[in-house]
């Protein structure tokens, strides 16, 4: 049975250029775009008003933004190569700068995709030569504590996406040459090298329970692997364009995917089928995200080249 | 767009006489100046004194400097030798009434000059030192481009450059850096050489600048326009504003940068005029997405693993490449390299730092999307069976009718 989702609201022209990335906290949604400003939208209000605007965050624009699961930290990566940490003031609800990751290893192309750990203590980032760096961002010095290689030194394939498991055990990365890697953060070693997509992998996501890794990209299919044995356990097919973004629902029952042709799909993991397809636009979607469940029904949002953010709500029927 | 018939061509065509705005110095005067320098050197030789040439170190003519031989350092001695050789070659060219190129000078003594750039700078500085234009030395930029279509250009010496082969060779040595296609509405096809009356340019309806496809000269910057090229385009813009001008460039950091150069330099000249803008035909990210089915057929050759699995296929692919192009050969579509990303970020910095008009915003967006998509495409990628005709028909149609 398919599920019904309704567009509840669209924030038109949320940014003046393409929105490249979205990240949610329990009550807000952060959006990053080709402009220098980050936006924070209030998702507790049905009209999703702009709650805060952070000007001059990234002079050349921002391609990735992520939040910690506890909703207290955010990180953003700009086209100029800079990475900034943001902290939530619990009393005022405002975001403020929590410093910048600096050092000789942070330069253009050196940091692309980013992911924060559940408590915001660690940040994982990919590099253009395929390495995955993990930084201790809770510490003042923001030191690099891990560096995973995915090829012979300095010759790995461009790291297009990265994710950390909720329990902090795993790091997963997707690369331009189609490879997907899973690392064990405890041992600091590569756990699995997963093949099968052969084309650039633009999105990778570890399920909430940490048992599955979903990876997708230019092949147009979503490959699902288990983290126990590194087995390829299934494919979700149905997108007819590059897949740019993936997100697991809070329970791990559903997977959300967005693609370059503007289509967003919801997949049932148990049944391995697409249960809903929506498109507000035929322009590229760069980011799709579930909102943490606060009310009765699940919600997700999409953003991309049409500069707007669309919010969807599950039609409960009751 | 009007149907182009013989009649409308004649009616619409504007006649433009290209007259450089710079004041020229007669060959005799330049020869005299060069000879006086050479005579001074001879005098020094005869008296057993140290040799010297009065020179400047930048184009504006400031920073006068005297270069000595043997001089205080080996570097100075080398510089003296280089200047002397250029003086001699310029003198030869002026006396014989021929034109020499900077490239030609470089090849006269590669060991002495080491780099082409050295020649370029010295020639410019020498012209300043002699208080003349570079062209007055009968030294011109190296040949870099071709043009196609019913165009003829009258040069200041009243010679006419037409599209016939012999004349085309002349324009090679004379100036231009780029391909100029003068298109009729309708499919792109080579236009037959059309006799035209001497000292004028007659045009059809579209001027089409095909940037950065010319790679036969590796020492040039792969199609970056110089001031001369830009001023040529300006002449057309201001004298024939009815002719739309389009740029087609690769979808890669250099292609986008070349486009920026055309616009930047045209703006520089056009402050006091109004003329139709130079328009960007492509390739843009949207063009790639519209042909996504063609993207999907390709497995991207990543810069990291270009090595084919077995040597057999490697040989085959090299063989087929050689038949396509004898010069640099790249895949028509490929993943961005680390260098590409760095260049793109550098250009992005420049674009963000400049004005905030619509064109800058569009260029900024395309650079960002280029980085997001992580792939680049060459103009050849638009080919279908070796011709751009189909794509150009649609694109030009859209842009001309949409305007």
TrEMBL record, chain A:
Pfam families: Beta-prop_EML_2 (PF23414). One of its GO terms (cellular component) is protein-containing complex. InterPro entries: Beta-prop_EML-like_2nd, SKI8, WD40/YVTN_repeat-like_dom_sf, WD40_repeat_CS, WD40_repeat_dom_sf, WD40_rpt. WD repeats lie at residues 111-145, 236-277. Coiled coil: none annotated. Keywords: Repeat, WD repeat. Residues 111-288 form the EML-like second beta-propeller domain. The keyword Repeat applies. PROSITE patterns: WD_REPEATS_1, WD_REPEATS_2, WD_REPEATS_REGION. It comes from the Eukaryota. This is EML-like second beta-propeller domain-containing protein. It comes from Hypocrea virens (strain Gv29-8 / FGSC 10586) (Gliocladium virens).
TrEMBL record, chain B:
Its cofactor is Mg(2+). The keyword Magnesium applies. The active site is at residue 107. Residues 79-139 form the Spo11/DNA topoisomerase VI subunit A N-terminal domain. Its EC number is 5.6.2.2. InterPro entries: Spo11/TopoVI_A, Spo11/TopoVI_A_N, Spo11/TopoVI_A_sf, TOPRIM_Topo6A/Spo11, WH-like_DNA-bd_sf. Residues 304-327 have a biased composition (Polar residues). It comes from the Eukaryota. One of its GO terms (molecular function) is DNA topoisomerase type II (double strand cut, ATP-hydrolyzing) activity. Residues 302-331 are annotated as: Disordered. GO terms for cellular component: nuclear chromosome. Residues 220-343 form the Topoisomerase 6 subunit A/Spo11 TOPRIM domain. It catalyses: ATP-dependent breakage, passage and rejoining of double-stranded DNA. One of its GO terms (biological process) is meiotic DNA double-strand break processing. It is an enzyme of class 5 (isomerase). Pfam families: TOP6A-Spo11_Toprim (PF21180), TP6A_N (PF04406). Keywords: DNA-binding, Isomerase, Magnesium, Metal-binding, Topoisomerase. PANTHER family: MEIOTIC RECOMBINATION PROTEIN SPO11. Belongs to the TOP6A family. This is DNA topoisomerase (ATP-hydrolyzing). It comes from Hypocrea virens (strain Gv29-8 / FGSC 10586) (Gliocladium virens).
